[in-house]
Amino acid sequence: MTSIGILQIALFFGLVLVCIKPLGAYMARIFEGQRTFMHPVLRWLEVLTYKLIGVREEVEQRWTHYTASLLSFSTFGFLIVYLLQRAQAYLPFNPQGFGTPNVSPDLAFNTAVSFVTNTNWQAYSGESTLSYFVQMAALAVQNFASAAAGIAVAIAVVRGFARQELRTIGNFWVDVTRATVYVLLPLSIIGALFLCSQGVIQNLKPYTTVTTVEGAKQTIAQGPVASQEIIKQLGTNGGGFFGANSAHPFENPTPLINLLQMFLIFLIPAALTYTFGRMVGDTRQGWAIFAAFSVMFLIGVFVAYGFEQTGNPILAKLGLETAATSGQAGGNMEGKEVRFGIVNSALFATATTGASCGAVNSMHDSFTPLAGLVPLFNIMTGEVIFGGVGAGLYGILLYCIIAVFIAGLMVGRTPEYLGKKIEQKEVKMAMLAIIATAFSILVFSGISSVIPFAKNGYWNPPGPAIANLTNTGPHGLSEILYAYTSATGNNGSAFGGLSPNTPWYNLTIGLAMLIGRFLFLIPLLAAAGSLAVKKKVPTTSGTFPTHGPLFVGLLVGTVLIVGALTFFPALSLGPIVEHFLMHSGKLFSIVLLPLWS
Description:
Elements: H1 3-31, H2 39-53, H3 63-86, H4 105-116, H5 132-162, H6 172-197, E1 208-211, E2 217-220, H7 226-234, H8 255-280, H9 283-310, H10 313-317, H11 341-354, H12 369-380, H13 391-411, E3 416-417, E4 420-421, H14 424-450, H15 473-488, H16 503-533, H17 549-573, H18 575-583, H19 585-596
Antiparallel strand pairs: 1-2, 3-4
Helix pairs in contact: 1-8, 1-11, 2-6, 3-4, 3-5, 3-16, 4-16, 5-6, 5-7, 5-13, 5-16, 6-7, 8-9, 8-11, 9-11, 9-12, 9-17, 11-12, 12-15, 12-18, 13-14, 13-17, 14-15, 14-16, 15-16, 18-19
């Protein structure tokens, strides 16, 4: 690692830290129904929305009604996105003439599920598949809707801890409206204008054909990029206009924009920790969660950066320079944009997978094995290293329940968190969410690793297993494992090396995204409803404090241990084995290859 690289990481983290309190306090006022400086400008839009959808602002919902509203909202969004894709040949703003054959039924299903669940996994290249209208009316709109739904669920869970002896946890439609009107929309308008000023394109022109200096013909794709790019990062969506995502110069043209994109990915998830502290009446609780986020993030980024800067020992043995000098970056530059380099590639990879964004500015498939393990494990934690907008907060609150339960077992006392007794129902709901996501990742990965299936079908007994992989062995297993981990974790980033646009992958990855979204948050809403009814118990000398370093350490340990115990066998057959292969082929062939086989 270099001093300049460490300084860039510190600069990024410092920018996030500075914005936590003002934005977090602002969002707390928004979701508590208080007036803010934006109300004179946007209150009319909020009121108009309630009138159009027939919602009474003052009426709240029980957790069952809240969940039903969420599911109906998501179902409607799924149908709209699916139908728009299938009908794009008949819709306007389609200068390239993309038609129905560009989007098969299974791909349309996968994409609709992906954007509704805030995963934004893309088994296609946008510039060769979808029209401008579908990119704007389907994908960009769902970038707002799914992000707002995640924030709404997080706020509902927070109310479960903040309230006592109440059966309601808010109104889903009000929370979604406020998240969109007062948080996502203003920031997106300002951010999109700034992106345009720095070279991110925004137009509705047909693709341009040019002649290169060598005399060849080249088609330059373009379109309404900036408007989708801003909400892609701010809403931790990650779905790019181009297949190359944030490595494409039209999406991410300069190092300044690269820094801004990473900052936007962390902005709302980090600020929501302060919102949480304000709403439960103790900002120390929010800072404790932010500290846990920060510890896990910094561990990951320095591990990834360290291994990437060290480089590939096989290349070093061939006489290639791997040390950073004034003339070259050294390390592992494979799969990276030269304008971003190693540190900004490793930092982006760690941030985007820690925050369930899924945008990428480098190819994770080209990382060294243990550096590639970092983004994979980030998602396996349940996306609780800052996590998605809303999803990170309600995810870490799940682990808070488990952490205080463990602490209670150690001292023989009924666990409490924020004055609420954590009892059987809350623990069961938390464990259900963890088991469901682990089941999705491991079962789908295991099946896809061994069964034979055809490129254009679901089953092909005569064909070879893992037919759609660029690589076999440990690296091929990592590619499959990453795909289902990314889908279940609602991250959406791709490891690379896998050809996922097949009926089998489109269907199973779509199911994994549904499991990761709804079988994670529905149990949490049930726990929130249970907690809201309870009385707060007074703090005593025996109460375990949940705002200090001891709790932060327990929370971090709980997240890492649960993740390690659940996924270590799979990881040991993928990136860990590959690491030993890279460093010692002899050790690998004698000791580890028989275990993997």
